Amino acid sequence: MHTDRVYVVTGGTRGIGAAIAQGLRDDGARVCVLARQPDPAEGVAVDLADPSSVPAAFERVLDRWGRIDGLVNNAGISKVGPSLDYDLADFARILDVNVTSLFACSQAAAKAMAAQGGGSIVSIASMTSFTGQPERAAYIASKHAVLGLTRALANDWGPHGIRVNAVSPGYIRTDLTTDLIARGVLDVDAIEGRMPLRRFGQPSDVVGAVKFLLSAEAGYTTGQALVVDGGWTVNGYFK
């Protein structure tokens, strides 16, 4: 499906991003990982907390890989804390990584795609793009913004043959969530009991959604958010 395509995956060195990058490689694609410390053989180093560094990073991508068929905006950060005392510098840094750099990456990739005649951009949003949670003001604001950008850029770049979509994951089994479960921060029984599918997601659930939106099978789909959350956001009932 993706043979000989070139895909850029931000934050692709761990967690869901690493799973996405490997899943695309398994399909025969060439994958460039953008991260602070990627394997030099597989990526380009960039600090997405500094959005001004993004254009030069994409120049290096094009110099080395020659083209960009798809971009997966996966990089994101968060910090939990009461909003009455939330540090403004932390708030700004989260928005820089999750929103401003996401736009900068999308813009840089879209310029290359427009010159090639088209491409596909998929951003990793969140089920909290549709909801709220306590003590995550910056993260949730940023993930709402990701959906707004997805819809805006789909309008702007559709005439260039560029599709822009999002995947909104829920609770996914990663090293981070496994650690939170082990420390008692997440209650697995309570979470799974509320989900219609009664299970945490696996990285493969997100990978499959991303692959679909990148592929020709989604060729008439743009400006959409594919929610991969086991039904969490459609269940308004609390036992």
UniProtKB/TrEMBL annotation:
Domain of life: Bacteria
Pfam families, sorted: adh_short_C2
Residue ranges occupied by any Ketoreductase domain in the UniProt entry: 5-160
Family note: Belongs to the short-chain dehydrogenases/reductases (SDR) family.
Protein name per Swiss-Prot or TrEMBL: 2-deoxy-D-gluconate 3-dehydrogenase
